[in-house]
Design brief:
three-stranded antiparallel beta sheet; PyrdxlP-dep_Trfase; aminotransferase; about 375 residues; PyrdxlP-dep_Trfase_small; Aspartate Aminotransferase, domain 2; pyridoxal phosphate binding; Aspartate Aminotransferase, domain 1; alpha/beta
Length: about 375
């Protein structure tokens, strides 16, 4: 009997994530993997012990759908101490299954058919598919130059009566750039007197270098009243596989987000929430991260200083872009594939995130790796 099932794809143009592609290629060729954004060193043993303690103490059933009370309180205290904004732990903070779920629920809660969402490219590759699943239309704006600056006049010109949301990401993946205070003030001014929601992806908030500051949307009073801020414990505390994050927003917005969160995952890993709640009580556990990762960035850049790659040091995240135009005129995707197959080193070609695959001859390397791994990777890069 013939199979008569016929279904149109809701994401017909969506391909396998470049992160999955490059990581698989790294495994297939036994290559050093500096492509996907995860550390290859262990999370703090104290944090792992706190998870075990929570399990042994019996915290193994469903927690409250919005998150464990103690964790929401610690998140609220952290944001207040860093950015001067108070979020009510009961109505304005929600623990999510990673930052990706926070982003998904935020978009799904508000974007309806034919709504427009402004996305600054290059961008994390879940924004646009989620917008399209909700029937919305991504409005792409390319960041300018190799240092990926925002043209705020272009952003302002892209706003129409259908604009429901703008998505920003700072510190920025994949470029390692950050939005300045002036950037945020310009954005605040642009959104003034509009009904537009700001979705601020701040998963690398604690990874800022060279005495720069993270300018969270939470810091700016007028901006925070229309902002949903998403964050990640996995990126912060070296345990991306635990898939735990959170979002904060004014109560009116959070009420809608929680409706989607409840029917999507309901709740998040209970013992890990208990562990994070205790771990956050010592601010050094996140305040010392910038120094830790800047040391790794500086080590990596010092190791490749005599190579033919050129670069601007990353200002945030744990990614470094390297320009290879003095090595080859190949497209970045081709060069990235050859680098894995012939040289045993995996990276991410940046063009896949740009409008029309704009190719600036740049590869993204993750330096959240052991010193030994970075030394081996640098040795390969210096031979090219």
């Amino acid at each position: 009997m013939p199979n008569r099932l016929k279904h149109d794809s809701k994401l017909p143009g969506n391909k396998t994530s470049i992160f999955s592609v490059m990581s698989k290629m790294a495994n297939d060729h036994n290559a050093i993997n500096l492509s996907q954004g995860f550390p290859n060193f262990e999370t703090d043993q104290k944090l792992k012990d706190l998870v075990s303690k929570a399990m042994n103490d019996g915290y193994n059933q469903y927690p409250p759908d919005s998150g464990v009370q103690e964790l929401r309180e610690q998140i609220s205290l952290k944001i207040k101490s860093l950015y001067g904004k108070h979020y009510d732990e009961n109505s304005e903070v929600t623990v999510t299954s990673g930052a990706t779920e926070a982003l998904y629920t935020a978009i799904t809660a508000f974007v309806k058919k034919d709504d427009e969402v402004i996305v600054l490219k290059p961008a994390y590759d879940t924004y646009e598919p989620t917008i399209m699943l909700s029937g919305g239309k991504p409005i792409q704006i390319q960041l300018k130059g190799e240092n990926y600056k925002v043209d705020w006049n272009e952003v302002k010109s892209a706003i129409t009566s259908r604009t429901k949301m703008i998505i920003i990401n700072t510190p920025h993946n994949p470029s390692g750039t950050i939005l300045t205070e002036e950037d945020m003030l310009q954005l605040q001014d642009i959104l003034s007197d509009t009904n537009i929601i700001l979705l601020s992806d701040e998963v690398y908030e604690h990874l800022i270098f060279d005495k720069e500051q993270h300018h969270s949307a939470s810091k700016f009073p007028e901006l925070s009243e229309r902002s949903i801020v998403c964050a990640s414990f996995g990126k912060t505390f070296h345990n991306t596989g635990w898939k735990t994050g959170y979002c904060v927003a004014p109560e009116k917005l959070m009420k809608e987000i929680r409706k989607i969160h409840e029917v999507t995952v309901f709740s998040v890993n209970h013992p890990m929430q208990r562990a994070y709640a205790e771990y956050l009580k010592n601010p050094d556990n996140y305040l010392e991260l910038s120094k830790f990762y800047q040391t790794k960035r500086d080590l990596f850049l010092n190791l490749i200083k005599d190579s033919k790659f050129t670069y601007t040091p990353s200002r945030g995240t744990y990614y470094q872009l390297l320009n290879f135009s003095e090595i080859t005129d190949e497209k970045d995707v081709i060069f990235a594939e050859r680098l894995v197959k012939e040289n045993g080193l995996a990276s991410i070609p940046v063009s896949v995130f740009n409008i029309n695959n704009k190719d600036n001859k740049q590869l993204r390397f993750c330096f959240a790796k052991t010193d030994d791994t970075l030394e081996k990777a640098a040795e390969i890069l210096c031979k090219l």
